[in-house]
Fold Malate synthase.
Amino acid sequence: MTERRHDREFVRTFFTSPTAVEGEADSAKMLRRAAGLRGMQAPDVWVPDNEDATAPSMRDEGAENIVEVIGEHGAEFPGEIHPRMVWHRDSPETRYQGFQHMLDITDPEQGAVEHIDGFVIPEVGGIDDWKKADECFTIVENEHGLDEGSLAMSVIIESGEAELAMGDLRDEMGKPTNNLERLFLLVDGEVDYTKDMRAMTPTGELPAWPELRHNTSRGASAAGCVAVDGPYDDIRDVEGYRERMTENQAKGMLGIWSLTPGQVVEANTSPLPPKTGSWLLDADGEEVELASEDGAEVYDGDRLSLEATDDGYELRVGGDTRELTADELREELLGLTSYVPSMDDIVDSMEEFEAAKEAGRGAIAMTQSATLRIGGTEIDIAKDRMWDEATYQAAMTPISLFQDVYEHRPDQHEELAERYGADVVERAMEVGL
């Protein structure tokens, strides 16, 4: 695994706020509101957005508001702060404006730069354009006496050029002619990417772009950066937002853009291990979470039924009915069920493997068992899973994420202890070290 180059190895939330709202007595009111977020409502990365979220006529005032609000509240904000500047691969004028705003915002006499972790650069093109942005960062740092590389650069992948440029990063980073090691986040921008690709759908909705998300996750992994998905703009569709995050997490993309504090809460909690474990059942193509009742995992739907017979069992799945012995039924149900481990389950398994490894054993079997109750009929199932070093390292990802969150977000300690219990939190912070 390529070593991460930034303090944060994981970023769950990328939250944007307009820097200046036209027609308001206080044009910085959205910035002030965001600066006051704490706990699970506060993002890992806050992005005062002086690009798309702010009208072009308000961007100079927006840069001034960034300085004022971050200078006043930046020290107390619990996440990182990465303002988004204007930039465009095809517009020198736009690039120059973004550069000037960066210079103004990072002026040490203004009092904001000590709380700013970096800047977000949109609309990048090929790798040479990334180098132009990096050079602007280097000039800003030298102009104000900052250490070279102290300002992180995050880019938004909004074009085919930028997508292809991710493949060049491993060869370009570390050359003496650039400071691309400063790269932090690679963020998908599916709206402008759709425009750049000239893509269309019958409904006018955005394509899902699973290829882009995969490529960005792969590019981030190869370059030691962090991958973040773009905005999910149907802010009322909580279930759709959760499904999008679940799909992303299977690609290694654990972060996502958040447009509201409510989305921040969902995105902050989604990649964390669940509080309690749960059994899932494939009921004729529909995945159902079973309810735990009196020591049994219960399915009470109508897509699947089970009855005991004189010779064994009768299992009906949809329109298919089968006569099975007890062993055949168990084998069938093992294929239809899966278990989602809780934080406590993961920590238990890791502790058990660590103890076995200390005792000189390279692999051990872990047993998962349950009593299933379907239509009033119960049957016990159990399956063994072999744990070796590779299994252990794979299970470490959610624990590493938790440890990273716990280290960098003390404002969330109380909520995490309430979620898991103080004992589980303490144990989770010790495994794998």
About this structure: The mean pLDDT is 95. The first helix runs from residue 29 to 35. The chain has two domains: 13-270, 278-392. The two ends are 17 Å apart (CA to CA).
